[in-house]
């Protein structure tokens, strides 16, 4: 027989996720109604307008840690100082600059934002990855 604390934790998690799904469904319904209202307004002004040709914009969540372009500049500034530097060292230095504690609940999101910036800079050819001791990657300017 399964442990009661395991069942309790699983049912609690299921309940939480089902609530999130319900909230998002309600938000989808609300947004769909707004789109229909906008479609009607467009048709009011231009009855023959091809609404189905309107392309969806990609939704991008706003980064709450850096202003526009700031992460790019800060990461490049750190890497340009000289010796190859690991992603962990870059993250630690930026966390200190931004006064973000590694104990905070948002630290993982902060790390993800910095790692995303590093990946984007690598893809753009601004920085290059080199392997150091113990197969740890370090970054330097291209």
Describe this structure in words.
The chain has two domains: 50 residues; 72 residues, Winged helix-like DNA-binding domain superfamily/Winged helix DNA-binding domain (Arc Repressor Mutant, subunit A). The protein is built from four helices and three strands, in the order ααβααββ. A hairpin with a 5-residue loop joins strand 2 and strand 3. It is mainly alpha-helical. Helix 3 crosses helix 4. It has a three-stranded antiparallel β-sheet with strand order 1-3-2. The chain is 57% helix and 8% strand.
Spell out the helices and strands N to C. Answer: HHEHHEE
Return the structural class: mainly alpha
* Low-confidence parts: none
CA radius of gyration: 23 Å
How far is the first residue's CA from the last residue's CA? 59 Å
Mean pLDDT: 89
* Count of individual helical segments: 4
General form: flat
Topology, element by element:
Blueprint: H1 4-45, H2 70-79, E1 85-86, H3 87-98, H4 107-123, E2 127-131, E3 137-141
Antiparallel strand pairs: 1-3, 2-3
Helix pairs in contact: 3-4
List the defining traits of the structure above.
about 140 residues; mainly alpha; Arc Repressor Mutant, subunit A; 2 domains; three-stranded antiparallel beta sheet; 4 helices; 3 strands; about 55% helix
Quick description:
Helices cover 57% and strands 8% of the residues.
